[in-house]
Amino acid sequence: MNIKKATIIIAILGILDAIYLTIIKFTDNKALCIEGIGDCWTVNNSSYSEWNGIPISIFGIFAYISIILILTLQNRVKFLVDFGSIFVFGIALTGFFFSIYLTYLQFAVIKAVCPFCIISAITMTIVFILSLTNLLNYQRETNLDQN
Question: Which end of the chain is more exposed for a tag (fewer CB within 10 A), N or C?
Fold first, then answer.
């Protein structure tokens, strides 16, 4: 399986996870937080679970959708042929650092861990690693073509 396909598959998993977190947030349904596996409810109801009234999971959904769209259109749109790998890397890097921050908040500040948030951090980390690998491969191929 190539890097682009693997990234899309992981991003789809990330979207599904973020959608689940968004459903929990909007429905305020504690039963969706599986008991005995962390403390999803405390994390999802903390002040850190929103930014200006927008659930953080919504930003995750948009990040993953953006990554999938760029990768899907990369071979069809000239601009994305040249810059798509950089954009995907930039989105993934931002998401990766934000995931580190959110994971820190869970452990150090909120003192509760949401397993679905950890899944999101893991998927974004994998997307980041794949995007970095893809970017390095693209740069290597571009340098070879120029020589």
Answer: C
